[in-house]
């Protein structure tokens, strides 16, 4: 069987495996040897520490950290980022990215490093 990918893994001897394979992750030996956990939702193997594959990431994109949107990993740092977005809404009275449509373009711009515009409602005292 001829594959369109070449296995990129190294053997213990230091040589590249180089077998042709059908998946970009590597030949069947190396793909099976990689530690994977099943997705909580669909049971597909995933390397994510959250236990969810990229199809089952939960959350509202304006409040999610870029690393969660990119790799689907939930960490303490991503929780702090999300809490910061909640505090942003509390202090400014506007949700994050209120002036941008919430679609795929917003997710891409968040992953590229765009931050929400800081504006606030004037309070009359």
Q: Could you characterize the architecture of this molecule?
A:
The protein is mainly alpha-helical and 125 residues long. The chain has a domain at 56-111. The chain contains 4 helices and 4 strands. A two-stranded antiparallel sheet has the order 1-2. Strands 3-4 form a two-stranded antiparallel sheet. β3 (37-38) and β4 (45-46) form a beta hairpin.
The counted number of beta strands is: 4
Portion of residues within helices? 25-40%
Order of helices and strands: EEHEEHHH
Terminal Cα separation, in Å?
76 Å
Number of helices: 4
Low-confidence stretches are none
Give the strand line-up of the largest sheet: 1-2
Strand content: 5-15%
Shape: elongated
Rounded radius of gyration (Å) = 21 Å
Main beta sheet? 2 strands, antiparallel
Structural class: mainly alpha
Mean pLDDT: 75
List the helices and strands and how they pair.
Blueprint: E1 5-6, E2 20-21, H1 28-33, E3 37-38, E4 45-46, H2 66-71, H3 76-92, H4 104-111
Antiparallel strand pairs: 1-2, 3-4
Quick rundown:
This protein is mainly α and 125 residues long. Helix content is 30%, strand content 6%. It is built from four helices and four strands; from the N terminus they run E-E-H-E-E-H-H-H.
């Amino acid at each position: 069987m001829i594959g369109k990918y070449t296995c990129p893994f190294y053997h213990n001897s230091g040589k590249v495996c180089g077998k042709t394979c059908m998946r970009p992750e590597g030949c069947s030996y190396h793909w099976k040897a990689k530690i994977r956990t099943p997705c909580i939702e669909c049971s597909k193997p995933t390397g994510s520490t959250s236990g969810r594959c990229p199809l089952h990431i939960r959350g509202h994109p304006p409040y999610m950290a870029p690393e969660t949107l990119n790799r689907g990993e939930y960490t303490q740092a991503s929780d702090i980022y999300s809490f910061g977005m909640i505090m942003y809404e509390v202090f400014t009275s506007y949700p994050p990215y209120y002036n941008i449509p919430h679609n795929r373009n917003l997710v891409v711009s968040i992953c590229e490093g765009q931050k929400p515009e800081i504006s606030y409602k004037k309070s009359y005292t």
